[in-house]
Amino acid sequence: MTVQILRLPTNPDLPLPARQTAHSAGYDVCSAEPDFTLAPNERRAVPTGFAFALPAGLEMQVRPRSGLALKHGISVPNAPGTIDPDYRGELKVILMNLGAEPVLVRRGDRIAQLVFARFETPDLAESGSLDATDRGAGGFGSTGLRTS
Question: Whole-angstrom Cα distance, residue 142 to residue 19?
Fold first, then answer.
């Protein structure tokens, strides 16, 4: 399978998103924005300088990088963000600083990871009732805290 990537004029030099090891699920993507500081509780749409053409039935999920989350409190607040196969605009990553200190993000820093996933588009049918299960309508926390 191939995903086409368009390099935008704002990004003449940054590497294509890439897996860092042979078994990595995610492709790291970099910031194409000039250096900026992300203040505590600030959100920002950060351009990557790339647009994608995904095949039908494949989504691209934008996820936080664990090192940035642990060390600096940087996350992707809508994680995983979904890029649909019919979107052709620039990929921008919504970053949020959940930490207590401002964080400098430099152009070329790896800011997120991209994970590709197939998806289904079932027909939805309204029903007057649903089949019964042991859990029923039990929601948050209904299965308990302990396994014993």
Answer: 38
Dihedral over alpha carbons 100, 66, 107, 32 (to 10 degrees): -120
Q: Percentage of residues in the chain with pLDDT exceeding 70?
A: 99
Please, are residues 64 and 80 in contact by the beta-carbon 8 Å criterion?
no
Residue with tokens 């940035």: 68
Kindly tell me if the per-residue pLDDT of 3 is higher than 90.
Answer: yes
Amino acid at 77: P
Tokens 């649909």 identify what position?
Answer: 84
Inter-residue contact 59 to 53 (CB < 8 Å): no
CA count, 13 A, side-chain hemisphere, 36: 16
The confidence band for 141, taking pLDDT boundaries of 50, 70 and 90, is: confident
The 3-state DSSP class for residue 14 equals coil
What are the chain's domains? 4-9+21-118 (2.70.40.10)
The single residue listed with the structure tokens 């196969």 is 85
Best CA proximity match to 10, nearest among 94, 112, 111, 89? 89
Max CA separation in the chain (angstroms) = 58
